[in-house]
């Protein structure tokens, strides 16, 4: 039987947009994508490569148009998008193609992300998380993930002097935020309704040997009755607006909430929405066009 031909699509775009574009391309192609480090690309400002794969016969006119419509929308928002490159390749293990590009890296503060196939020699008091990035989301590249980890480090600075706390991670994705909290000693409930996210998070829990501290459930937020010391919600702005009351209702007195996934321009509206639920803003961090808000129950 002849080997199947695959079409490789490669796009250069801003590094901060890479994970978000990866989510789109994963859904568009129905398969994993390859994320290249910006350091490998000779360009300025920092552009990074992203590759998607699909059987050559599936690249119909409609599929092609969906891709170009997405790229045109990014360009209209002011993002620099490089020339789209295409080539036909022989059948290969595309699920592992990105192993060449995903390397161990320090994200922020003590937090280091490494893939399971790469050894990492820790230096100092680091928090090393093993992430299998098969579906390209939740690898820490997106600014909102970076911001949440920065906020977590500050919130948990004195955790070593206190008993482990209960943490809720809403929309966990690959579980990176919940894993970070569990690595610091918290007991974590992570929820998601996406089967791919659930599978990824469960695999990463096992890779990090944190199954005694963290569990993942296929649950909507409305099904949760427990209250928590800390809640993560790295979601979209509309989802945060919709879920604000439910999120606040699951926060213990003196508990804190870390929300992100929204732009800096949405910050005033987000603060107002959660203030109406009895929470006060105690900290804000910004990165690129994104924001994180740390809230506390009054």
From TrEMBL:
* TM segment ranges: none
Positions bound to S-adenosyl-L-methionine = 145, 171, 192, 234
Q: Which CDD domains match?
A: AdoMet_MTases (cd02440)
Task: Look up the record and report any one GO term of the cellular component aspect.
Answer: cytoplasm
State the Gene Ontology terms under molecular function: protein-lysine N-methyltransferase activity
GO BP field? methylation
Q: What class of enzyme is it?
A: transferase
So what EC number does this one have? Answer: 2.1.1.-
Reactions it catalyzes: L-lysyl-[protein] + 3 S-adenosyl-L-methionine = N(6),N(6),N(6)-trimethyl-L-lysyl-[protein] + 3 S-adenosyl-L-homocysteine + 3 H(+)
Keywords in UniProt for this one?
Answer: Cytoplasm, Methyltransferase, Ribonucleoprotein, Ribosomal protein, S-adenosyl-L-methionine, Transferase
Q: Where in the cell is it found?
A: Cytoplasm
The entry's function note states: Methylates ribosomal protein L11.
Task: List the HAMAP family.
Answer: Methyltr_PrmA
**Which family is annotated?**
Belongs to the methyltransferase superfamily. PrmA family.
Q: What is this protein called?
A: Ribosomal protein L11 methyltransferase
Species of origin: Desulfobacca acetoxidans (strain ATCC 700848 / DSM 11109 / ASRB2)
